């Protein structure tokens, strides 16, 4: 087990800056950015509507998610990526059908 807090081990396995890269919030934001890039590529290939890709890209930020709802969904299904997708889909409506 890697220790990342406390006096002895706090910076033994990374710095404060690197720990910030791997926060839940940073993971969610990166995941959403990747899904937005996928939507744009799918739109260019004619697989999904351009409007949907634009909406997905515009809302690819943690501020569009109900974080309490997301936490509940993770606890319910134990699949955090699916929970992010479903919470995001609910937040943006019709265009959400094309996420992932």
Topology:
Layout: H1 16-21, H2 24-44, H3 50-58, H4 67-77, H5 80-92
Instruction: Quote the beta fraction.
Output: under 5%
| Number of separate structural domains | 1
Mean pLDDT: 90
Major sheet characteristics: none
Fraction of residues in helices? 55-70%
Distance N to C terminus:
33 Å
Order of helices and strands: HHHHH
Query: Which structural class best describes the helix and strand composition?
Result: mainly alpha
CATH superfamily: Fumarase/aspartase (N-terminal domain)
Low-confidence stretches: none
Q: Which class in CATH terms? A: Mainly Alpha
Structural shape: elongated
Structural notes for this entry:
- The protein has 5 helices and no strands.
- It is mainly alpha-helical and 100 residues long.
- The model has no long low-confidence stretch (mean pLDDT 90).
- The protein is elongated and about 55 Å long.
- 60% of the residues lie in helices and 0% in strands.
- The two termini are 33 Å apart.
- The chain has one domain (16-98): Fumarase/aspartase (N-terminal domain) (Fumarase C, Chain B, domain 1, Orthogonal Bundle).
- It has helices spanning 16-21, 24-44, 50-58, 67-77, 80-92.
